[in-house]
């Protein structure tokens, strides 16, 4: 998926605890924007910000789906959860990209396989 996809960033949790949010590197503010992947990793560019944030393939450790993330409910829609490590902390970033569970399960499965190879 090198093309940009509209989506929503739900935030980044520390140690999978919804009440502990990571506040560095532009990962604190939630919002709408564009999601895409490239050779370096996964990027999300929130509207009204200058630069996208990057989750590198090297720091990512897994991908899965859920219904809740960082204290927000997805309204029965699938939320992509990306596990990674940064600054010695175990983190999980959440994104809403599409309402179709089958499509999102396929994306999560493909991402998880790519991450595990990296």
Compile the SSE list and pairings.
Blueprint: E1 5-14, E2 17-21, E3 31-37, E4 41-46, E5 53-56, E6 60-66, E7 68-69, E8 72-73, E9 79-86, E10 89-96, H1 101-117
Antiparallel strand pairs: 1-2, 1-3, 1-10, 3-4, 4-5, 6-9, 7-8, 9-10
The tally of beta strands, per DSSP, is 10
The arrangement of helices and strands along the chain is EEEEEEEEEEH
Radius of gyration, CA atoms, in whole angstroms: 13 Å
Quaternary organisation of the protein chains:
single chain
| Total number of helices | 1
Described by the principal axes of the CA atoms, the overall outline is globular
Describe the structure.
This protein is 14% helix and 50% strand. The chain has one helix at residues 101-117; strands at 5-14, 17-21, 31-37, 41-46, 53-56, 60-66, 68-69, 72-73, 79-86, 89-96. The strands form 2 sheets. Strands 1, 2, 3, 4, 5, 6, 9 and 10 form an 8-stranded antiparallel sheet that branches. It has a two-stranded antiparallel ribbon with strand order 7-8. It is globular. The model has no long low-confidence stretch (mean pLDDT 92).
